[in-house]
């Protein structure tokens, strides 16, 4: 047996021992090891809360609240994250919706992350069909307020954000347009400064046109993060890459279902809650609630 055949066989055996291999990576010769603490096949009867935060350490939100007790479940081997309108439009800390989130207790810095996801249907009549929520698969760090000038305070990698219906440079996205962006807070002259994708297109912004409606069909969303580059994949196809200049803080692996227009308005770096009974467009979208996103698996690898 030739050395090449032996290498391929050993590579195959390694994948079988350590779990499924990524659909696509930058180098076919790389060997990957599954990080079990950050990966989940969602095959049990209930969520393994030893891997995921259930109540504490969840991201701060101003447009809705998290309630994993009522909004995260496992059904037929898939995690279901559901967004629900509060009963009788009851205001809870000036918000009107609650949703589910999976945030890993362990952290990720470099490696490969992948999930098979179906978005959340908001089936309403008219041109706003699908508007209102954003199924997301992302990585984000905590804030290092003591960072030195020029260093990263906070970093975020959006493996994918679906159904944002973004408006940018005169173009209105539709249900098939997905976002794969970078967010950053950096210390500049002693102050924490946000760097957002739309102001830093070349270094932080990626858009991709999916083949079909992601709220009704599963796709595999992946991202390779190494010391030099961040590379995005959809269904095993490379769709974008950016230099990794500042995304080096330990990040939590996260899948979540958040709100978007018309249920929130973005201002001062946050999605602010809109009372859906006092906003005509939001009121029309309420018939699409509750709605659920589905996560078939989350897998994370590190290079051997």
TrEMBL record:
Domain GH16: from-to ranges: 30-304
SUPFAM superfamilies registered for this protein in UniProt: Concanavalin A-like lectins/glucanases
Keyword flag Hydrolase: yes
UniProt source species: Seonamhaeicola marinus
MF (Gene Ontology): hydrolase activity, hydrolyzing O-glycosyl compounds
Keywords annotated in UniProt: Hydrolase
GO biological process, one term: carbohydrate metabolic process
PROSITE patterns: GH16_2 (PS51762)
A Pfam family assignment: Glyco_hydro_16
Name the UniProt record assigns to this protein: Family 16 glycosylhydrolase
Gene3D superfamilies noted in UniProt: 2.60.120.200
């Amino acid at each position: 047996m030739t050395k090449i055949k032996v290498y391929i066989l050993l590579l195959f055996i390694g994948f079988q021992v350590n779990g499924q291999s990524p659909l696509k990576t930058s180098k076919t010769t790389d060997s990957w090891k599954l990080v079990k603490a950050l990966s989940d096949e969602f095959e049990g009867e209930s969520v393994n809360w030893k891997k995921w935060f259930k109540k504490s350490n969840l991201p701060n939100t101003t447009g809705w609240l998290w309630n994993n007790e009522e909004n995260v479940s496992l059904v037929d081997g898939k995690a279901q994250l559901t967004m629900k309108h509060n009963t009788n439009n009851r205001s809870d800390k000036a918000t009107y919706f609650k949703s589910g989130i999976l945030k890993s207790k362990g952290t990720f810095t470099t490696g490969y992350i992948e999930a098979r996801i179906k978005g959340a249907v908001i089936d309403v009549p008219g041109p706003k069909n699908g508007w209102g929520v954003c199924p997301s698969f992302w990585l984000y760090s905590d804030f290092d307020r003591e960072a030195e000038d020029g260093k990263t305070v906070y970093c975020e990698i959006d493996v994918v954000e679906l159904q944002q219906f973004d408006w940018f440079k005169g173009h209105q996205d539709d249900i098939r347009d997905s976002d794969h962006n970078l967010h950053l807070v950096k210390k500049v002259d002693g102050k924490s400064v946000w760097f957002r994708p739309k102001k830093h297109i070349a270094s932080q912004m990626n858009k991709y046109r999916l083949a079909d409606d992601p709220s009704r069909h599963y796709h595999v969303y992946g991202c390779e993060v190494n010391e030099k580059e961040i590379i995005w994949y959809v269904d095993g196809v490379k769709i974008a890459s950016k230099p990794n200049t500042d995304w080096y803080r330990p990040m939590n692996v996260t899948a979540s279902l958040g709100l978007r227009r018309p249920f929130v308005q973005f201002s001062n770096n946050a999605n602010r809650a809109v009372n859906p009974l006092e906003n005509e467009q939001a009121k029309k979208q309420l018939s699409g609630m509750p709605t659920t996103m589905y996560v078939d698996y989350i897998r994370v690898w590190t290079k051997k």
